[in-house]
Write a structure and sequence with these properties.
With 215 residues, the protein is mostly beta strands. It contains 4 helices and 13 strands. The chain has a single domain, classed as YmcC-like (YmcC-like fold), CATH 2.40.360.10.
Length: 215
């Protein structure tokens, strides 16, 4: 049985808030153990990243916790609630309502995830049970499908301070299990929005913490 590392939620905020611009890394190289899963960054990608940052596009700081790999994502597209974020070295992450639905250019990518039931409970701050489905590539370039039953449970509230702005958020835990694996996600929800989270990608990547940047 594969078990994801479980972290006490009271310890997670300091992990997220250490994310400073002076420690931004090439996420794809660190997350894959030093070997990139893609070609070297195209200059156009880095230039597009810089242009979007300069234009004021939403930013998200992320940290691959098991590898202490810290980087910044910029929003590159949004449609019907689905958001795609990209780093300056062309790693991408997809989210819906703040819940991760896919990654690209990391070893062990989450190809897609069905999170609608979890999203509804998390954003409403309600306890309950949800089913989520993860899809990964197997060794033959086929799709491996993992289904989980998840318990959503509020864990109280917490005062946060992002970039000089203070606010209160409700902490929501999502504990997911199937016969071969289990993991736990955490979400900080304020005003019906996930403002920071720790979410499990898969057995090869582990968990990623992330939060928005207020500017």
């Amino acid at each position: 049985m594969i078990r994801a590392s479980r972290l006490g939620w009271t310890l997670l905020v300091p992990m997220l808030l250490i994310a400073g611009c002076d420690r931004v890394a090439d996420l794809s190289e660190i997350a894959s153990g030093g070997t990139t899963t893609k070609a070297k960054t195209l200059p156009v990608v880095a230039a597009d990243f810089a242009a979007r940052v300069e234009a004021g596009a939403p930013l998200m700081i992320a940290n691959v916790l098991e590898r202490d790999a810290l980087t910044t994502f910029v929003l590159v597209s949004e449609r019907d609630g689905d958001r795609v974020w990209r780093t300056q070295d062309n790693v991408t992450m997809s989210t819906r309502g703040g819940l991760m639905t896919g990654t690209r250019a990391l070893a062990g990518d989450l190809m897609s995830a069905d999170v609608a039931e979890s999203q509804a409970l998390v954003l409403a701050g309600r306890p309950g049970l949800a089913v989520r489905v993860h899809r990964y590539l197997d060794g033959q370039n086929g799709i491996e499908i993992d289904s989980y039953v998840c318990e959503i449970s509020p864990r109280g509230s917490q005062d946060l301070a992002f970039d000089g702005v203070q606010f209160r958020a409700t902490v929501i835990a999502e504990t997911c299990t199937n016969p071969g694996n289990d993991f736990e996600n955490f979400y900080w929800v304020s005003g019906g929005t996930v403002v920071q989270s720790v979410q499990w990608v898969g057995p090869e990547v582990g968990a990623i913490s992330m939060r928005g940047v207020i500017r």
